[in-house]
Task: inverse folding
C-alpha cells in the first residue's frame, strides 16, 4: 500500500454540522490508477483534500511510509506536499504571470535544484505532456486543455508518489478531456505513476484500474 | 523560506503584472518619499536661515564679554592676539552704549521724535570681515574708518521702511538727516545719517553704529572693548576656539557660542525641528498605509494563487517574503526617483529662488542625514506595510484561499 486511510472522518462545523466523510477505510497500491466516483455532495472532493493534506480531517489516520500524515505540523505538511504529492485542480490553477516553463519549474526551484537542472527537467516534462512548443506561453495565451496539461506537468515535475486530480476534465470539451485522460493512462503505464482522480463521467471508468464509490460520506464498494 | 523563489515571484509579478498599477505605485512611493525629504529639508532650511542670520549679522560665532562687574574687556595684549589663532578668521571689537536718540524733523523744537537704542562702535576693517551688515544697506552707504560725525542706523530706528516696531521709530529719518545722540555719560552729539540698514533680525535693526575713533573720543577710552565678536573657520568647533581664546589670557571673561546667545530664536528653531519630526512621522505612517493598501489589494487579487502555491508545497514565509520584496522594490524605486528629483530639480530650484521668510532667506537644506533617515523610514514603512497584508493572506487555509 502506498497510502492507507483508517477511520477517516470529516465534519464541517457550522449551524448544521455536515458529516462529509463518515468513516472511511481503504488503501491504494503503488502504481494504481483509481477513480473516485459518486453523486454530487457525496464527499469526493472532501476525501481528496484530506488525502492531499490540503485540509485536516476531524479524526482518523492517513498513513504513508508508515507515518500518520495527519499528525505532521504545517511546515512538514508543506514539505510533504512539495516532495511527495502532486495536484491537478478542476480549473487550471496556474499563476497568470508565469510562463508554462516557469510554472513547471517552480516546484523544482522550491526544492533548491540548480537553474540548468530545473529548466531541463521542466522542459522535458512539458514535452511529455505534449507542450514542448509552448514553453514561453503565458496562461492567457493557451487553451484550457493546454493550461490543464501545464498544471499536470507542474504536478508531476517533482516525481510525486501520488498524483491527485479533482475532476481535471470538467471544464474541457470531449476532445481535450480525452487527451488528458490518455495522458494519465500513459503516465500510469509508462512510469507507474499512482493516480487518484475524482470524476463524474461514467465513461472514464475505462481508463482506470479501480473505482471507489462514495455515497453520503461512506465508501460503497 | 526560499529566497530565490520569493524574489522570482516578486520579479515576475512586477514584470508581467499591470503596468498601470506599477507606474501608479511607484509614483505614489516617489511622492511619499519627496514629501518626507522636502518637509525635513524645508524646516532644516528655516533653522539654518535663523542660525545664519544670527551668525552673519549679530553674534558671529563667538562673543566675548567683560568679566562680571567690569565694564570693558581690558586685557589689551590678549585682544591683540585673538586674530593670530589659526582657524580664527577675524575678530571685531565693539564699544556698546545705551543712548537716547532724537530727531527734530522740522528743526523747530516741536514734535521731536526720540527713543532709547543701543549704539555700537565698529572698527570698519575688522567689522566687514566678521558681520554682513555692510551688505544690507537699504539706503545710503556703510561707514568708513575716517568718518567722525556720521552714523548708520537700523530701519527700526529710522522708521518708514516697514519695520515691525514702526511706532517706536524716529518716524522716517532719511540719509543726510541730522539726529542727536545723548550718550550714557551725558555727552550729546549730532550725527548725519550716512546709511540705513535692514537685516532679518529685528534686534540688529534696532541698533546704530558709529566708528571706533568717534566712540573712543566720547567715552574717553582707548583700545578697550565692550564685546568682541569672533568669526571662525569651522562652525561647530566653537568650543575648541573658546578654549584657545581663554589660553590667550582672557581667563575670566564671559565667552559664549552664538547658539547660547540666541535664546528665543533658538527655542523657535527647536519648535521647527519638533514640527518637522511630527510631520515626518505622519508622512512615514501615510507611506506605510499606502504600501499596506497596495499590497493588500494585490494579496486579495492573488488569494487563489496563494492557495495554489501553498498546495504545491510553498512555505507561507516564502509567499510573505515575495510580497515584502515587492513592497521594498516599490520603496527603493521610489527612493531612487525621489532622490533624483530632489537633488536635480527641487534643490537647484530652491537654491536659485530661495523663499523670503521673516527669519531669513530659506532654501532646501538637504543633508545626508535627512536622506538617510528618510530612506530608512520609507523602507521600514514598506516592510511593515507589506508584511501585514501578506502575512494575513498567507496564513489563510489552502481550501479557503482557493475556493473562498
Ligand atoms: N467548506 C465546507 N463547509 C461546509 N460544508 C461543506 C464544505 N465543503 C463541502 N461541504 C459539504 O460536504 C459535503 C461533501 O462535499 P464535497 O465537495 O466533498 O462533495 P463532492 O462529492 O466533491 O461533490 P461534487 O461532485 O459536487 O464536487 C457536501 O454536503 C458539502 O455541502
Ligand atoms: Mg467535488
Result:
Amino acid at each position: 500500500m502506498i497510502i492507507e486511510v483508517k477511520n477517516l472522518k470529516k465534519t464541517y462545523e457550522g449551524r448544521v454540522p455536515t458529516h462529509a466523510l463518515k468513516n472511511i477505510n481503504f488503501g491504494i497500491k503503488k502504481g494504481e490508477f483509481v477513480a473516485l466516483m459518486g453523486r454530487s455532495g457525496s464527499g469526493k472532493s472532501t476525501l481528496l483534500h484530506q488525502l492531499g493534506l490540503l485540509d485536516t480531517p476531524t479524526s482518523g489516520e492517513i498513513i504513508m511510509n508508515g507515518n500518520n500524515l495527519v499528525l505532521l505540523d504545517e511546515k512538514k505538511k508543506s514539505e510533504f506536499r512539495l516532495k511527495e504529492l502532486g495536484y491537478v485542480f478542476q480549473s487550471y490553477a496556474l499563476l497568470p504571470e508565469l510562463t508554462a516553463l516557469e510554472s513547471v519549474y517552480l516546484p523544482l526551484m522550491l526544492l533548491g535544484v540548480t537553474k540548468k537542472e530545473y529548466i531541463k527537467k521542466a522542459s522535458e516534462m512539458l514535452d511529455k505532456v505534449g507542450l514542448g512548443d509552448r514553453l514561453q506561453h503565458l496562461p492567457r495565451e493557451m487553451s484550457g486543455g493546454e493550461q490543464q496539461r501545464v498544471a499536470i506537468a507542474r504536478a508531476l515535475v517533482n516525481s510525486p508518489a501520488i498524483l491527485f486530480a479533482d475532476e481535471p476534465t470538467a471544464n474541457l470539451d470531449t476532445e481535450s478531456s480525452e487527451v488528458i485522460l490518455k495522458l494519465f493512462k500513459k503516465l500510469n503505464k509508462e512510469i507507474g505513476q499512482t493516480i487518484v482522480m475524482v470524476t463524474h463521467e461514467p465513461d472514464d471508468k475505462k481508463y482506470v484500474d479501480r473505482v471507489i464509490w462514495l455515497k453520503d460520506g461512506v465508501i460503497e464498494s | 523560506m526560499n529566497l530565490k523563489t520569493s524574489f522570482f515571484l516578486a520579479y515576475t509579478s512586477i514584470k508581467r503584472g499591470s503596468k498601470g498599477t506599477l507606474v501608479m505605485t511607484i509614483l505614489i512611493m516617489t511622492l511619499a518619499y519627496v514629501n518626507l525629504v522636502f518637509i525635513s529639508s524645508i524646516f532644516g532650511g528655516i533653522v539654518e536661515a535663523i542660525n545664519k542670520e544670527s551668525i552673519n549679522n549679530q553674534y558671529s560665532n563667538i562673543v566675548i564679554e567683560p568679566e562680571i562687574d567690569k565694564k570693558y574687556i581690558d586685557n589689551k595684549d590678549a585682544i591683540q592676539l585673538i586674530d593670530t589663532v589659526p582657524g580664527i578668521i577675524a575678530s571685531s571689537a565693539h564699544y556698546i552704549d545705551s543712548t537716547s536718540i532724537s530727531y527734530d524733523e522740522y528743526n523747530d523744537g516741536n514734535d521731536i521724535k526720540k527713543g532709547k537704542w543701543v549704539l555700537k562702535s565698529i572698527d570698519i576693517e575688522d567689522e566687514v570681515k566678521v558681520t554682513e551688515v555692510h551688505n544690507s544697506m537699504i539706503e545710503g552707504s556703510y561707514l568708513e574708518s575716517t568718518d567722525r560725525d556720521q552714523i548708520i542706523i537700523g530701519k527700526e530706528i529710522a522708521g518708514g521702511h516697514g519695520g515691525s516696531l514702526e511706532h517706536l521709530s524716529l518716524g522716517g529719518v532719511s540719509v543726510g538727516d541730522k539726529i542727536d545722540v545723548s550718550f550714557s555719560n551725558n555727552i550729546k552729539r549730532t550725527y548725519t545719517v550716512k546709511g540705513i540698514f535692514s537685516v532679518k533680525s529685528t534686534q540688529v535693526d534696532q541698533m546704530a553704529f558709529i566708528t571706533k575713533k568717534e566712540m573712543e573720543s566720547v567715552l574717553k577710552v582707548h583700545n578697550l572693548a565692550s564685546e568682541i565678536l569672533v568669526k571662525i573657520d569651522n562652525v561647530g568647533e566653537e568650543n575648541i576656539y573658546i578654549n584657545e581664546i581663554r589660553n590667550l589670557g582672557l581667563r575670566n571673561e564671559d565667552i559664549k557660542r552664538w547658539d547660547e546667545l540666541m535664546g528665543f530664536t533658538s527655542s523657535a528653531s527647536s519648535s521647527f525641528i519638533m514640527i518637522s519630526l511630527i510631520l515626518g512621522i505622519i508622512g512615514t505612517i501615510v507611506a506605510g498605509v499606502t504600501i499596506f493598501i497596495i499590497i493588500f489589494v494585490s494579496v486579495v487579487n492573488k488569494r487563489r494563487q496563494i492557495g495554489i502555491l501553498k498546495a504545491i508545497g510553498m512555505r507561507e514565509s516564502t509567499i510573505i517574503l515575495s510580497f515584502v520584496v515587492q513592497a521594498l522594490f516599490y520603496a527603493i524605486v521610489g527612493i531612487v526617483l525621489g532622490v533624483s528629483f530632489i537633488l536635480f530639480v527641487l534643490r537647484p530650484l530652491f537654491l536659485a529662488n530661495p523663499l523670503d521668510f521673516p527669519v531669513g532667506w530659506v532654501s532646501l537644506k538637504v543633508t545626508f542625514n535627512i536622506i538617510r533617515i528618510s530612506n530608512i523610514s520609507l523602507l521600514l514603512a514598506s516592510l511593515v506595510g507589506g508584511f501585514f497584508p501578506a502575512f494575513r493572506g498567507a496564513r489563510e487555509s489552502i481550501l479557503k484561499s482557493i475556493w473562498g
Observations:
- Chain A is about 35% helix and 25% strand.
